[in-house]
Amino acid sequence: MVMEKTDDIEDVVAALGYLCLGTRLRRVAERLQAATQEILADSGVQVGYLPFLAAIDRLGALTVGDMARAMGVSQPAATKALGQLSKLGFVRLAAAPEDGRRKLAELTPKGRALVDRSKASGWPQVEAAVADLCDGLEGSVLAQLSEIERRLAERPLKERS
Q1: Closest CA to 22 of 142, 155, 119, 144
Q2: How many whole angstroms separate alpha carbon 126 and alpha carbon 161?
Q3: Is 161 helix (H, G, I), strand (E, B) or coil?
Q4: How far out from the chain centre does Cα 139 lie?
Q5: What value, to the nearest 5°, has the Cα angle with vertex 102 and ends 99 and 107?
Q6: Dist CA 94 CA 104 (whole Å)
């Protein structure tokens, strides 16, 4: 097992290796999402919702069930995200033409403007920063996670964008 320390306190999650892989991945994901939120602060929406907007941009209007499948999340999670995006005015939810019981989500003009603006500047910045962070990683997934965490501590994602 790799013994990693942070400020002279053992990083138990890292030290437990594969036993805590899910926790470790979540820890890295939370850091990346927080940094992405900083980079995209002017978007007016939490970065966790941006992939939902990107899915509609890529695939067109989607039912809640199709969105859940496209995102790899549960239907309740897709319903919650789309409901929030609707409240913010980025998505319009309406009855699906072929089945009025199903909700269809599509971008509003405000949502389209956000996606277009994000595709032009914010998303490429984040993609480049994460690519820079991951450049040249070698070894096992645990070694790569250690290196990603070290690199994030050394130079945050925002500085890489």
Answers
A1: 142
A2: 6
A3: coil
A4: 25
A5: 110
A6: 5
Burial of 9 (0-12, 13-18, 19+ CB in 10 A): exposed
Residue 125, CB half-sphere, CA atoms under 13 Å: how many? 17
Give counts: helices (H), strands (E), the chain. Answer: 9, 5
Give the pLDDT confidence score for residue 134 in this predicted structure: 92
Token pair in block for residue 148: 């990603």
Closest CA to 2 of 137, 145, 136: 145
Per-10-residue mean pLDDT, the chain, length 161 = 65 93 93 93 89 97 96 96 97 88 94 95 92 91 89 88 75
Q: 91 burial class (0-12, 13-18, 19+ CB within 10 angstroms)?
A: buried
Task: Measure Cα distances from 154 to 59, 90, 93 in Å.
Answer: 38, 36, 43
Q: Which region holds residue 146: left if phi is over 0, alpha if psi is between -120 and 50, else beta?
A: alpha
Query: In sequence order, what E strands does the chain have?
Result: 5-6, 9-10, 62-63, 91-96, 99-107
In the chain, where the domains are located: 1-39+130-161
Q: Which amino acid is at 45?
A: V
